[in-house]
């Protein structure tokens, strides 16, 4: 009899614990990846979203415009801004820890007329190749212009030196011949 | 009084062609061929720290680069420049050195005449000839009575050429450069470019200015033709 009461008590405790935790999970902002939480009807309007601190999906942040984020995720501009800032900080800390950032860049979020740009999105491979090619080309041009300027300088020096030398020789000869022409 | 015919002139030139991508790989081989073919006319030949070929001859220096040939220090006088074949040897040497690189499309030709004068109070003389007005146009009443140096340069197009004039003066001397550039497509060769550019005309244009500076030079300078007979002293 006592054994049956113990079993029954444990069942009640388990069920009540499950109910309480399910309620807590359903009403918290932390939820497992893949679980799509149903938005409360009160947040359907734009004003209601102001109070919401939930995050918009990451893919929207990366590729969608500000207007699209607000429209599709039902969140306010302020929320998006906070989220992007938090993500930027988190990404910055991660990059710093991994040692992938050699020089720490200031966190900068640029808001254009209709588009978010995060400073930590990596460049495309073709962009890197193009940048490398442009840099190499610039270096070559710079080298040639320096080389050209150095040659020009040498030629100018040569002009002055050769004429100066000839003039000095002419002057010396004229001075040597001067007594002959006096009388 | 010395005449401007006696004036020593340094001729510089540039023959620019398409970039030779293989030049720095083959510069040793090119220099060897130059030495073999130019023989006794060469004073010295070397490859400088930049990889360009430095060719010295009795008449002047030449630099053979991946972009063409640059000549400097070819001395002559104003009178010789006026003669029909006055620059023939210079042109021949430029073309000969240019061919060692191979056949490339000629992009540009250039020639520059350099004159040096040593007048007494050269800066004041130039100021009186109008350069002071340039400074006055900038500084107005604050124009200083004396200047320590002067630099002036200008570029302009004339017929098929692009000309430039540079004047540089210091208490020691007055240096005057008169350049003429032409497109490579406008002339068959460097020799044709030199003929068309009319160095005689360039000298004639500079003559009044040169004579004013020569007249202010101390006696004894330029009284002797560089390659000719000594002039009679007056």
What descriptive keywords fit this protein?
A: 183 residues; mainly alpha; 3 domains; two-stranded antiparallel sheet; 2 strands; rod-shaped; B: 234 residues; alpha+beta; nine-stranded antiparallel β-sheet; disordered C terminus
The largest sheet of chain A, given as strand count, sense and whether it forms a barrel, is: 2 strands, antiparallel
Count of separate structural domains of chain B: 1
How many domains comprise the coordinates of chain A? Answer: 3
Overall pLDDT score of chain A? 68
Structural class, from secondary structure content of chain B? alpha+beta
Give the overall shape of chain B, derived from the CA principal axes: elongated
Q: Helix fraction of chain B?
A: 25-40%
Strand order of the largest sheet of chain A: 1-2
What is the quaternary state of this protein?
A: heterodimer
Total helices of chain A: the number is 6
User: What percent of residues of chain B are in strands?
Assistant: 25-35%
Report the largest inter-chain contact: A-B, 25 and 30 residues
Number of helices of chain B: 6
